[in-house]
Design a protein that fits this description.
The protein has 140 residues and is an all-alpha fold. It has one domain: 434 Repressor (Amino-terminal Domain) (Orthogonal Bundle). Helix content is 61%, strand content 0%. The protein is built from eight helices and no strands. The protein is globular and about 40 Å long.
């Protein structure tokens, strides 16, 4: 049963991602440049092969100007246009139910979104050195 739910979630995420990209007229390569997420990973998300982790969902939602909960939730049955409304304030993980975090995480994410893709890689590599075993070596 769990595997079937995961498949449904991946397919629903894929559908909502494609809808959001279409509404914004954004291609996968552009979304990759906007978020710093590998083009291959975005292609797999679009095809419904993989479900991104929360940090990637946040980056995708921010770039597409949609609610990250709407983008990732299979249970949330909103009219698609509700999820595509412009977000006037920055998305805050600390105010998002279901994501246990604090304001410092929001500050770090806001800063990271301003970095180039290469600078994000450098920051991740520094974090891996500073906090061994905390960050995976490879991303999907």
């Amino acid at each position: 049963m769990m595997k079937q739910e995961n498949e449904q979630q991946k397919l629903e995420f894929s559908r909502r991602l494609r809808l959001s990209m279409s509404k914004r007229n954004i291609k996968a390569v552009e979304l990759s440049n906007m978020t710093g997420i590998d083009k291959g990973a975005i292609s797999n998300y679009v095809k419904g092969k993989y479900m991104p982790k929360n940090d990637k969902i946040y980056l995708l939602a921010h770039a597409l100007e949609v609610n990250p909960t709407w983008l990732s939730s299979i249970e949330l049955r909103l009219d698609p246009t509700e999820g595509l409304e412009e977000i006037s304030a920055p998305i805050r993980l600390s105010s998002n139910p279901g994501i246990d975090t604090d304001e410092k995480i929001d500050i770090m994410l806001e800063g990271m979104l301003k970095l180039s893709h290469d600078d994000r890689k450098k920051l991740l590599n520094m974090a891996r050195v500073m906090f061994p075993g905390t960050f995976p070596d490879e991303e999907p």
